[in-house]
Amino acid sequence: MTATVLSCPCCNGENITPFHEAGNVPVNSVLALKSKQEALEFPVGDISLGFCEDCGFIYNSAFDPKLLEYSERYDPTQAFSGTFNAWHRQLATDVIERFGLQGKRVIEIGCGKGEFLHLLGEIGNVEGVGFDPSYEPARDATPNDRLDFVADFYSEKYSDVKGDAVCCKMTLEHIGPSKEFIETVRRAVGDDPNTVILFQVPDVVRILEEAAFWDVYYEHCSYFSAGSLAALFQRCGFEVTDVRLEYGDQYLMLVAHPVNGEVNSQPTAYDDVEGLRARVGQFAERLTDIRESWGARLAKYKAEGKKTVVWGSGSKGVAFLTTIPDHSGIDFVVDINSFRQGHFMARTGQEIVSPEFLADYKPDVVIIMNPMYRDEIEKDLARLGLSPEVLTA
After folding, report:
1. 304-392, which class in CATH?
2. pLDDT 10s digits, 25-59
3. What phi and psi, each to the nearest 5 degrees, are found at residue 237?
4. Where are the domains of the chain?
């Protein structure tokens, strides 16, 4: 496994400590794969995580963006979940009220299928433009003539598209040249200090502390803590006014504004390099322990003839199944997203089924990929007359 990016993409530092490698992982996790054969033969890449000792950024030095596909068949949406939708609506309401965006113009980078921009339009009469190569007009059930969508990556060529706010949720972690990209955003937004910048990414501190191998996958080439995220934006000419945890402390939300002038290179309020260094040092041992624990548990279920299913066919499910020692005791993966049902899991080949499938299958064990959805899933299981053992990753 050869590292191809030797200097830090956030600060250009060269003091990089490698600490986790995984080979032959699927390069996409949420593409619609129509056959088991296609799934089993899906392309793979390597993960080689490095920790920047200077700024605390963590990244996959073996990442090759040319291996990825972001198209209409890429479907990471969580909008089929009532739990997620309630939080998403509250987030949209808070953003509109906190930053006075009623009737204003919002640019969303990485808008997915457009759900959040639609919420902003519905709640705050927001005008806006969303950019995402996976956007599908056919999936847009609530067209809004104040909203436009561009099925393309946001780049320098769209720098003339302006807004009162720029929002980017769960996208920056997919971008390898982090500093280069944020510099592009900085040039595009101009020098108006009233422009609101909102970026949301997964919190790497939680991933390290839990050794959450199900949250390490190929599309996520960039891993941020509050400190490394804030430092990146300050380095690129933004004043960072807030970095807070959201959604069960799984996501970081950064708030910033452009600054016309000198910005401190390191925001000491969020500096967490020392704490990260300790967590990075413990990650490999913790991951081995957790992986072996899951392996032993699943081997026991298989030996006892218990039917085990995974609930959640997204990236966490793919990473879980491709990392545990043996996935042969798991034949099906459940998902409430009807657009993913009937497709297959990358590299491991399990069919993705609806919750209703379980009424006849009657699983003994259900493994939930995200604990945020446990209550919702247990209600679905009860509705189907099922009472399996429920575990969370």
Report:
1. alpha beta
2. 999 999 999 999 999 999 999 999 999 999 999 99
3. 95, 30
4. 16-62, 82-276, 304-392
